[in-house]
# Entry
Amino acid sequence: MKNKRVIITGGSGAIGLAIAKTVLEKGASVLIVDMNENGLKEAKKQLNSDKLFTFKANVTDEQEVKAYVDYAVEKMGGVDVFYNNAGVEGKVKPLEEYPLEIFDLVIDVNIKGVYYGLRHVFPVMKNNKDGGSIIISSSVAGLMGTPNVLPYVTSKHAVIGMMRSAALEGAPHKIRVNTVNPSPVDNKMMRSLEEGFSPGKGEEAKKGFEQSIPLGRYASHEDVAKLMYFLGSDESSFITGTINPVDGGMTA
# Structure
């Protein structure tokens, strides 16, 4: 990863920060992108590196996506690794009651935001002699159904199809594309979902989720970041078009 030029969307979230910390320690330059300005300031302070850049952008706005890619090229000279990571969970509601504005938000962030990132990073990576690596954050929800979170499950299935097509288009240019599919991760997103599934009894919901994971616990941010680091690094140079669960055996 040394001297690689890296973009991370959703960069001020727990997983984004864990990836940023890992790749910075390995010698990469990093641009973290998020729409949370305070989160970006906190990340800058926490990571404390002169090789870290930040950019405020909404991934659902294609012009803002183009702007963060242009900024990465301006500041780092190009893009070698793209962690296409920004995502939202939506709400927990039966499909016939699901608020349409939340449905649209989940689709816009989790599908369109990923596509816009591919659309604007691909041409930059095509200019690289050695191509690049793109890692899309999917989920175990992209490999199975879960009731009452239909938009989220739909979006995480969709990006797997997007990844496969992009991997085939990227291969002649040495651009690799893969997904990472975590089980529940011990973070703010899961607190929201636990409360949604069992209002007022989030801790009980957590225990239920943990029982569905053979290794008996949620993933940590570091568990996910280690796999994402590997897929972004030259250690995985012959891996493309793949789905990569980091799920404690949940999908077994």
